[in-house]
Write a structure and sequence with these properties.
Length: 143
Amino acid sequence: MERSVTCVAPVGDKCGEGAVWSASEQALYWSDVNRFLVHRYDEASGSVRFWMFDEPVVAVSLSDEPGRLLLALASKLVWWWPETDRREDHGFHLPGYPRVRLNDGRPDPAGNFWVGSMKNNVLPDGELGETAERRGRPLPHRA
């Protein structure tokens, strides 16, 4: 059985990850860690929109409030409302940043947001740095 893959959003990501589907919006959100972006693909129109941040966006999560997302940036968590681009500090800041950074996060079934950390391998210009050392640990937080 032959299967085919179709790219619906050729956005040129350097490190695209963290895709999350918003059923209420019929849209897919994901980040490009090295370009400090969040993308939104609208299934109905086929359009892609993006927003730029001041540091790597490493995880995107839906929240219990429609229209509000939780983003894990390299150094902290932020609440974000894409419709207005409102950004609000969540209150969690990673100790040790910029030596270490957050990486990959998802909510569990109870609503806790789990995010890991690692040696920071993303330079201020988005290029890759060294990743040899192990400095990360899981960090749970209630979304």
